[in-house]
UniProtKB/TrEMBL annotation:
It comes from Horticoccus luteus. PANTHER family: ARAC-FAMILY TRANSCRIPTIONAL REGULATOR, HTH-TYPE TRANSCRIPTIONAL REGULATOR RV1931C. Residues 115-265 form the DJ-1/PfpI domain. Pfam families: DJ-1_PfpI. InterPro entries: Class_I_gatase-like (IPR029062), DJ-1/PfpI (IPR002818), INH-QAR (IPR052158). It comes from the Bacteria. SUPFAM superfamilies: Class I glutamine amidotransferase-like. This is DJ-1/PfpI family protein. The lineage of its organism: Bacteria, Pseudomonadati, Verrucomicrobiota, Opitutia, Opitutales.
Length: 441
């Protein structure tokens, strides 16, 4: 189970702490060096890769600086538009699908950038839309080869963008854009813009909004994204009408979502737009989703002293500074639930204390329940994992958020579990005994 591909991004030759520093945010330093820079307050932090050489007093000093800077961020003024003050069309259902080019069903492209694409943003829409059976869903990469997901796993896409264009020269009906590390990648920007120009609906998941905004397609449109990128989004893309307190928003040809967990209800809303309320409701019951509306409270996730600040600091800084990083293995086999796998791998790899590897009996790609091709991880040094989780059980996919947060709570404690929930933008505060208490909406 612990054999491995030399090209894996989780090779032991790569600094585990450097990888862990990517686990909280999928964006490069010039975008959001840490999710907690939500207010744009200038704070100087040492990179997590320097942790092994920082003496204790140095770490304590940096922790004090972090606390001061994040406290300032927590109380900084953030000009924003609230969904409640916007026209009623903001929280309206997504536009109903209109068939084009004599297609019997829509073509949906889920695009990733090879060097780093957010795992749950990518896998959740794929799993939901394929299970719905209402569209032709194709995973696409900017270049040939595997997609290195962040913060964990690898995926073999169905096609490169060149191959997709050769097959569908008229473009996709929907293009789903997850958050990526290189949000300003010229190839990705040009392709997404071209798809929008051809008339396709462009759907950004979480901070995939940075890609869509970078194309200019969002200019003059209402849009939303992850709570932590709000200040930087408004600074970098002032022509977009950024809205808070909404799970997803559709404005003409552009659909955008809040943070990671919003991918699930938004995907069900897309099913409703394509195939109607009855099909969406049936699928929602299967997945364990009771509500896929737009209601959302962004404020509960922002840094607040005495509420969630300790949890956010833990998963961003102190866990990595003061704790060793565990390599956790998770056995997978054909038929694995790609939604549950993505959320589990995403969550454990966002703790600042662990990185999750997908393990298989061979190096051959594993086909998920809905057909996503997952490339197993291995370690080049031949060492076993520090810990191995049991194979995922069968349960409604939506439960994976609570189950993952609960598992992290049991393993690493309430503070770390809460930090992961905040990072997922998932409204759950772990109890001191169990992670099973949802926030009042």
């Amino acid at each position: 189970m612990n054999s491995l591909n030399s090209h894996s991004p989780w090779s032991s030759q790569r600094s585990a702490r450097a990888v862990a520093n990517e686990c909280l945010t999928t964006y490069p330093p010039q975008w959001t060096p840490a999710m907690l820079r939500a207010s744009g307050t200038k704070v100087f932090f040492a990179p997590r890769t320097t942790a092994p050489i920082l003496p204790f007093l140095g770490r304590a000093f940096l922790l004090g600086v972090a606390l001061l800077g994040i406290a300032q961020a927590a109380f900084a003024e953030q000009p924003s538009l609230d969904a409640a003050t916007q026209p009623s069309t903001v929280d309206a259902p997504l536009p109903v699908y209109r068939a084009r080019f004599e297609r019997t069903r829509p073509v949906i492209a889920i695009v990733g950038e090879n060097s780093g694409t957010e795992l749950s943003d990518f896998a959740i829409p794929y799993g939901v839309l394929v299970r719905a059976g209402v569209a032709e869903v194709i995973t696409v990469a900017t270049q040939p080869g595997v997609l290195h997901m962040r913060p964990a796993l690898q995926v073999q896409p169905d096609a490169s963008i060149a191959e997709f264009d050769a097959r569908f020269p008229q473009g996709a009906d929907y293009v789903i854009v997850p958050a990526v590390v290189k949000f300003n990648d010229p190839t990705l920007l040009a392709w997404v813009k071209a798809q929008g120009t051809k008339g396709g609906m462009v759907v950004s998941i979480c901070d995939g909004a940075a890609v869509v905004a970078g194309t200019g397609l969002m200019d003059g449109h209402r849009a939303t994204a992850h709570w932590a990128s709000a200040k930087n989004r408004r600074r970098l893309f002032p022509s977009v009408k950024w809205i808070d307190n909404i799970r997803y928003v559709a404005d003409r040809q552009i659909i955008s979502t809040a943070g990671i967990s919003a991918a699930l209800p938004t995907s069900i809303a897309l099913v409703e737009a394509i195939a109607g309320r009855e099909r969406a409701a049936s699928l929602a019951r299967e997945l364990g989703v009771s509500d896929w509306g737009t209601a959302h409270d962004t404020a509960q996730f922002r840094p607040r002293l005495g509420v969630n600040l300790r949890a956010l600091i833990a998963v961003t800084y102190t866990n990595g500074w003061f704790r060793s990083t565990e390599m956790i293995g998770l056995p997978i086999a054909d038929g694995v639930d790609e939604i549950a796998l993505a959320v589990t791998a995403d969550g454990y790899s966002r703790t600042g204390r662990s990185l999750l590897h997908a393990l298989s009996a061979s190096s051959a790609p594993v086909r998920s329940r809905s057909g996503l091709m997952i490339v197993p991880d291995t370690r080049t040094d031949g060492r076993p994992m520090d810990r191995e989780l049991p194979p995922l059980e069968a349960y409604p996919s939506a439960e994976s958020f609570v189950k993952t947060i609960d598992g992290i709570h049991r393993l690493y404690g309430r503070t770390t579990a809460y930090g992961v929930a905040l990072n997922f933008e998932y409204p759950l505060i772990p109890k001191r005994s169990l992670a099973n208490e949802a926030l009042a909406q």
